[in-house]
Amino acid sequence: MRTIYDLHSHTLESDGTLTPSELVKRAARMGVQVLALTDHDVTNGIAEAQVAADESGLKLVPGVEVSVTWQGRTLHIIGLGIRHDDDVLTAGLAGLRKRRNERGREIVERLERAGVEDAWSGASGYSHGEILSRTHFARHLVDTGHARDIGKAFKKYLVRGKAGYVSCEWVGLEECISWIHAAGGQAVIAHPGRYPMGSGTMRRLLGEFRDAGGAGIEVVCGNNNKVEIERFARLANEFGLLASCGSDFHGPEQHWRELGRLSWFPETCTPVWQHW
Ligand code: AMP
Ligand code: MN
Ligand code: MN
Ligand code: MN
Question: Which residues have CB under 6 Å of ligand 1?
């Protein structure tokens, strides 16, 4: 039987809802054999996940999902197989978390002006790790009746152009890749289909990413469809990039992004795990 890989997932250490050991146990139950934990800008869950993985007989790939700014847009770059205690990487991620915190303060001020009270304590109450995410603000907005669900909270308040949106300058693409390399990892572009960019810009991104030493792209992710998978499979091959797959699992509430429930992996692609 084919090995089931899921190389993109989150815990309470960032904006997920399970602890690292709950995540690993759930992945094992879902039949995942190789799981990457890739919290946003933080690696604190990896030690606990490793213990649970050893108990469950599942292979854990230490990872991270780094917030990047490229040409004025936010991108997510996954680091796979990182030494999570590497000095360069940990210092870089600490800087990103500081920026997140500063952004959080501004989000609170803006939400207050839009009539949303107690956003700092509300969002912080949902944050169990070291990062403050827009997801935590979204939960507060739902909690206080400002939005019916998380998706609507984003749409109404937290996306570009809305009252609670604050743009943030994350790390540059090349620097992010250099952190991942310093930590011995492979860099992978997360969910390439989710960035609002035309095909010319996407090609420029893939070229720059590859030239900077990027390894692969997530050809199969969460809830993408056949057309998207085929598009990114072609692009991966054209640009000489490896293919990854991951659910982007955040918690059982998001039943459409369950661990290990991924579409078929295109045979034409070379998997990012080819030399693991
Ligand atoms: P941040 O990195 O704090 O800006 O938050 C980004 C996170 O918010 C992503 O990793 C997703 O988990 C979540 N997110 C972004 N856009 C949406 C959306 N439209 N609906 C639900 N969750 C979203
Ligand atoms: Mn997230
Ligand atoms: Mn992401
Ligand atoms: Mn993610």
Answer: 15, 40, 67, 133-135, 150-151, 154, 250
